[in-house]
Write a structure and sequence with these properties.
globular; four-stranded mixed sheet; alpha+beta; Aminopeptidase
């Protein structure tokens, strides 16, 4: 079997959008409702969110959404999927030529898919990036046309990024559930325009480039050093595959993690959090460029989920690439690394904080200007569990507080990723 670290060479089809954009709107809503000094700002954001359309009905009856409180964080854990479609339909003049329209139109493919998992105690969160080129089983899916009751037949093996065009957002969710073992009750879809609008709303994202990044496929030409990305340039950066790492989609995932971690640090910085106008612009940009599941279109649901993230520190927000190895039947594709997937999925099922022991990915390196390059270990804030040793368990009548049990799970060394607290730099494909 080909080594999991061997470079993958993919077709030169233009690749697509990101992104953990939903994380941005969550933080924006939290801040406006929680720390804004004026009720006017809160009302403005609520009115913006109220413009959300009817929403997409997800297919899994077992992935029930929790009851939404009128005020306060949602109870229990949250699993939310964000799909970035590569469609060129209605994406502006830059994508209206025949080559772009032939590459992807209509529903498009989910070339970027991320699953956000928030632990039931709201102390840690994980963002899992599922590779577009992953060959996986796709279950039967409902027809994407809500007026039809037909079933889109499943298959034992298909590229994961075809699930959106195959059966719409519900099909992407159902397939991701099989891969992660999670029940996903919330989902959203974002297109190219959304990435541009969101980067504009935050005034650009500053990223570190260890080397120059050039990609003729996306029009990217950046010098090494700190670069502030906004608008079309931000979109080109997160879409870039040929210009970063080894030119593979896995390299693009780690490049997106560099961007997302930098974005989260900016979003949670004092300058953004203290600016209701910027936050309103952020929420408005997201709403106007995203399609939501019916479970997520209620503004109260967004606020409740956002509040669940409020106390998750940057060091406890972990970005991971879904564990894969090269497909032995096709060097341009990947398949799940079953052993590593089992460790990751078990950690997600138990809500355990994650500790990364592997590298930061194919297109990233630790920022040399930082004082520490180590991945911060998750802070243990959980109460003792039923797996505690006898010395950790209180005896009858004992009113003392038991010592906390370290419940963090160390992921295998071949699982790449980083925390939002880590400062990393993109490596160009030169």
């Amino acid at each position: 079997m080909t080594s999991p670290h061997s470079p993958l060479k993919h077709s030169k089809r233009p690749s697509q959008s990101p992104i953990g954009t939903f994380l941005k709107i969550l933080v924006a809503v939290v801040v406006v409702f929680a720390v804004s000094s004026t009720s006017v700002a809160a009302i403005a954001v609520y009115q913006t969110l109220s413009k959300i359309g009817p929403g997409i009905q997800l297919a899994d009856p077992n992935a029930s959404a929790a009851a939404i409180p009128s005020v306060g964080a949602i109870e229990g854990g949250v699993n939310l999927l964000l799909a970035g479609t590569d469609t060129r339909t209605n994406q502006g003049d830059a994508f209206s030529d025949s080559a772009n329209q032939d590459a992807s139109s209509g529903a498009g493919n989910n070339d970027v898919t991320m699953v956000l998992h928030i632990s039931a105690d709201h102390t840690n969160a994980t963002v899992i990036s599922i590779p577009r080129d992953l060959i996986a089983a796709v279950p039967d899916c409902p027809d994407p046309d809500p007026t039809k009751t037909d079933i889109v037949q499943g298959t034992d093996a298909a590229m994961f990024n075809t699930t959106l065009s195959r059966g719409g957002l519900p099909c992407t969710v159902l397939t991701a559930e099989k891969l992660t073992g999670l029940k996903i009750a919330y989902a959203a879809e974002i297109s190219f325009d959304g990435v541009i609008a969101m980067s504009n709303a935050v005034g650009g994202v500053s990223v570190c480039l260890a080397t120059a990044v050039t990609d003729p496929f996306t029009g990217l030409d950046l010098a090494a050093g700190q670069q502030t990305l906004v608008g079309d340039q931000a979109l080109a950066f997160v879409r870039s595959r040929h210009g970063v790492g080894d030119g593979s989609d896995l390299g693009r995932i780690s490049n997106q993690q560099v961007f997302l971690s930098a974005l989260m640090r900016k979003i949670t910085s004092a300058g953004v959090l203290a600016n209701p106008i910027a936050l309103f612009s952020l929420a408005n940009a997201a709403v106007e460029n995203m399609t939501f599941s019916t479970t997520l279109k209620d503004p109260a649901a967004m606020v409740a989920i956002a509040l669940a993230l409020k106390n998750v520190s940057l060091s406890n927000l972990v970005f991971v690439q879904y564990p894969v190895i090269t497909d032995p039947d096709d060097a341009n594709r990947v398949i799940a690394d079953d052993a590593s997937v089992a460790v990751l999925n078990a950690a997600l099922a138990s809500d355990s904080p994650l500790t990364l022991t592997g590298g930061v990915g194919r297109a990233a390196v630790a920022d040399p200007s930082t004082t520490s390059t180590a991945t911060p270990a998750p802070t243990d804030t959980t109460a003792p569990t039923d797996t505690a040793t006898p010395t950790d368990t209180a005896t009858p009548g004992d009113t003392s507080t038991p010592s906390p049990t370290d419940t963090s799970v160390a992921l295998p060394t071949n699982v790449s990723g980083q925390t939002a607290a880590e400062e990393t730099c993109t490596v160009g494909n030169n």
